[in-house]
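FAQ: What does the model actually see?

It sees only this:
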Amino acid sequence: MNGVKRLLVAMALMVCGCSAAEQPTAPGPAAQPTPKPTGSPTASPTTSPPAGYGKIEKLETGPKPMTFPAIPARPKVCAQPGLKADQMRPVPVRRSGWKLLNVDQKINQIGYFDVAADGAVWAQTFRVIESKEEAEDTESAIRRWHKGKWTTLTRHPIGPDSVDGVYALAADSARRVWVFGTTAPPGEDDVVTRMFIGTFQHGRWNDVVIADKATLELDWSVVGARSGWATVDGLMLRWNGRAWARQPGKPSGGIPFGQGHDMWTLDGDLTVLRWEGTGWRRLKLPDLGTRALDSSPEPWLTALVPYGRDDTWAVGYVGWDMDNEEYEDVPVRARPVAVHWNGSSWTCTWGPMHRLFGEAAPDGKGGLWVIAEREYEASELWHLSDGRWTKEFLPTPAGQTYFVDHLVKRPGTDEVYASGYVTTDEDDLIDGSLAEEHRGALWRTK
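And it is asked to produce this:
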C-alpha cells in the first residue's frame, strides 16, 4: 500500500459522521492509534486516589423530541468547475499566524483533545513503548495543558473491569473533564465491551460503567464530544447539569459540531442536522461533484463550522474511484469543497485537485480554519476570512516538519488550537501513524 493509500485509509474514522455499516470505507481525517490500557507514560503526574466506581443499568432519557419538516436541497446540484480550476486560490502567508506552544519530548503524538473556556487543554496522548515480545506497543494517557505545563492525570482500574480504550473527551474547565470509552472484564477475550464515562473532578477520577443495552456493540470509530454533547455511533448523549442522558430522536451516528444550543451534526453523505431546541431538523445538501475521470463522484464531508442558524459551513472533498489500486501511484483523485448555508440556500466553493480537507474550526470572526492534506507534503492550514482564502504552515523547531490532524476553538475567544507531532522524517507525514521518533506538539493561533 503506497503513501496515498495509507493516508486515505487512516483518514476513514472521522468522515461523514456515519457508521461503517452505513457507508463504504472511505478516506477522511487521520485516525488515532488504538490505545492500550497500560497506564500513564509521562512525568509530572498528579497523584490521585483510586477512582470512584459506579454502574448504571439504564441511561436517563431526555424528553421525546419534536419533529420538524426537512429543508430540501437548494440548489439540487452544486455546479463544479473543470478539474483544472481552483475557486479558492489560497494565498501563501509569509508570517504564520500560529505559535508553537509546546513540543513534548516524552510523548510521540497528541491525539484527540478539547479546550475549556478557561484555556485548559485536555488531550489523549500516545507514546511508543517496547513490549516483552520485543515489539513496539502503544501507551496512552489523559493529560492537561494548563498555565504553560503538562500534567498527567493518572487513571486507575475501573472497579473490576479494565479500560479497553478511551475514544473521546469533553473539557469543562481545568478542574473537570469527561472521557468516554469502553471496558472489558479482566482475563476474558471475545467479550462484549461496555461503555464507561469517566469524570475527573475534585482531584480524582470517578467512573461509571453503562450496562444499558443501547450502549452495547456500538461502532466506536464514530465518536466525538463537544460542548455538553457526545456521540457514539447512533447514540447521542447530552449533559443535563447532573448526568449524561440519552438524547432521543437522532436517526444515525454523527459527530456534534457547535456550542451550547447551536448544535449541528452530519448525517450521511449529503445531509446535516440542526438542533432546534426540542428536536433535529434535516437540511439536505446539493449533490456534490459530477462524473469525471471515468468515475462517479464520491462526496465525503469531514466537518461543520456553524455560526448560527443562517450561517454554517460544511467542508470536505469529492473523490473519483479513490480506492482503485490502479491509481495507487498517481496523485490522489480528489478535490476539496466548502459549502455555505445562508439560511435559504447553499453555495459551493471548489478547491484544486489532489488535496483533501480534514478537520475544521471557526476562527471566531466569521471565518474558518481547515486542514488541507496533500501527499508527501506537510499539512497546510487554510484560512477563510472575509471571502478570501490564505494558507499557512505551522512553526516548528529548526530542521523539523510536522503532522497536524485536530483543530479546536477555545469557547468565548478567537483562539484556535491544533495538535499532532513534529518530526525530522518527512516520510512519516503521509499517514499520521505513531512512531518513536515523533514528538507530540501543540499549537495555537496568535
